[in-house]
Amino acid sequence: MITKLKLARLNGQPEIFYSIQGEGKSMGLPSVFVRTSLCNLHCIWCDTDYTWNWTGTRFAHANDARPGYTKFDKKTWIAHCTIEEVAAAVARHPCRNVILTGGEPMLQQPALVLLMRQLRQTDPAYRFEVETNGTLLPTPEFQQLVDQFNVSPKLENSNNSQKLREKPAVYRFFSENAKAVFKFVLAEKTDLEEVLELMARYGIPAEKIWLMPEGNTRQKLLQRRRWLVEVCKQYNFRYTDRLHVQIWGSRKGV
């Protein structure tokens, strides 16, 4: 039986923190975040690349051009935690909305099932959201325990190949799932065509779609927000900002 979770490590500790949800349907909601390590995609603009951008990897990242930037040592940046340790760390916070994020948390479904069950045993009021890239199907046990899937399919601007990023069976599953909403990250106006194509191909209802500007600075978000809001008005999509970036800037663990 799997008894440990692989979590991201930040400031030498497993990355479990209490903040507000910064994006999507639950934006502004106080939440406890549990950030898993490992991902099956490699987005060039990823702001948590310490979950996958290991030393020796062939995948490119925008930070590669920064002076002094180095990729991450896998052994150093993964925290191996027991289910009991993670549950205790979550329970220390006065909040019952838990966001399982990453990386790609659905790579660790069996261990996360154990975590959710343990937390619900201590308090049935626990509610669970999952941030996922939409490439993996949930197991029946995982699906039953999760209250909300925040599905963020990656577009061509992520630098992932279509074969890696677009899984038709998974998109169809979440399109029809009452627990799922979709969040698309747009960097340029041309990205809208791709969103509309995916919406039509997989029957994603407009009311399940949130559009978010790509950016890790307030200035970049401001520039993209102005035209993205107009797109949402035109197509009856929901708009989401990156509230944590607006408040704290490009910081981790907030």
Compose a concise summary of this entry.
Helix content is 32%, strand content 21%. It has 254 residues and is of the alpha/beta class. Helix 2 packs across helix 3.
Number of strands: 11
How much helical structure, as a percent, in the residues? 25-40%
From the 3D structure, determine the CATH topology. TIM Barrel
The dominant shape is: globular
What is the domain tally? 1
User: Which strand order do you get reading across the main beta sheet?
Assistant: 3-4-6-7-8-9-10-11
Q: Name the CATH class.
A: Alpha Beta
Strand content: 15-25%
**Overall pLDDT confidence:** 93
Describe this structure in words.
Helix 2 crosses helix 3. The strands form 2 sheets. Strands 3-4-6-7-8-9-10-11 form an 8-stranded mixed β-sheet. Strands 2-1-5 form a 3-stranded antiparallel β-sheet. It is globular. It has a single domain, classed as Alpha-Beta Barrel (TIM Barrel). It has 9 helices and 11 strands. The relative contact order is 0.15. The chain is an alpha/beta fold and 254 residues long. Helix content is 32%, strand content 21%. The model has no long low-confidence stretch (mean pLDDT 93).
Summarize this structure as a short list of keywords or feature phrases.
254 residues, alpha/beta, eight-stranded mixed beta sheet, 11 strands
